[in-house]
Structure formats: structure tokens, C-alpha cells
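chain below, 111 aa
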Amino acid sequence: MKEDTEVKETWISLTEDEFLAGFMAAFVTVDKMAILADGLDTAVLTVTSTMPEVNIYNDETADLVAIISIDPETNTGTLPITATDHGSIRLRAGLPLKSKVNQVEVFFSAI
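prediction:
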């Protein structure tokens, strides 16, 4: 004999920040996508999150690059980026996401 079972679905609504926090991720932007590889030119990575701090990783190697403290009044934190050799780096705030809203890439050009 088959028993009747009732399945109840529960849906919750999340803000984008709550969704990202579930992946320990955050929105990231950068003020310059390309800088000179002279050790002086600087790009600034800005992280927006309600978490107290956000881990920044090299997306290609998964190495931890920095831990950014988030200002609770502005919900932002920053990381300056400089380079002394040409190339690029893709940085990620938190775990990888398919949407890539938590990634930026900065290119370093030779002088």
C-alpha cells in the first residue's frame, strides 16, 4: 500500500548581497583595467559587501592574495594593484561563481 506524503516547498527571497555572502563572495570593480608595469601606476580594486572582510584570490591559481576589511558604513573595501612585469591577473572575491560578478582582470603593459 502506498502512503500519501505531502511535500511542502519553501521559498525564500535573497538580496544579491545575501546570495553572494552564501558563497563568501562579493561584487568587485576596478578603476583601471590596464596599468603600466612600472611599479608606480596603480589600479584600485573595490569590493562591495556587508561581510566584515572578504578574501581576494588569484582566480587562475586559487592562491589567497589579500584579505580586505570592509568598512561597515560604506560596505566597501579597497586593494591597490601595481606591477613590475607585463602580463595580467584575474582576481576573485570569494568562491568561484558562474556569473563572474566577483571577478576582475587587470592587464600590465610594458613601459
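The domain at 28-109 is CATH 2.60.40.10 (Immunoglobulin-like). The first helix runs from residue 16 to 22.
thats it, cya
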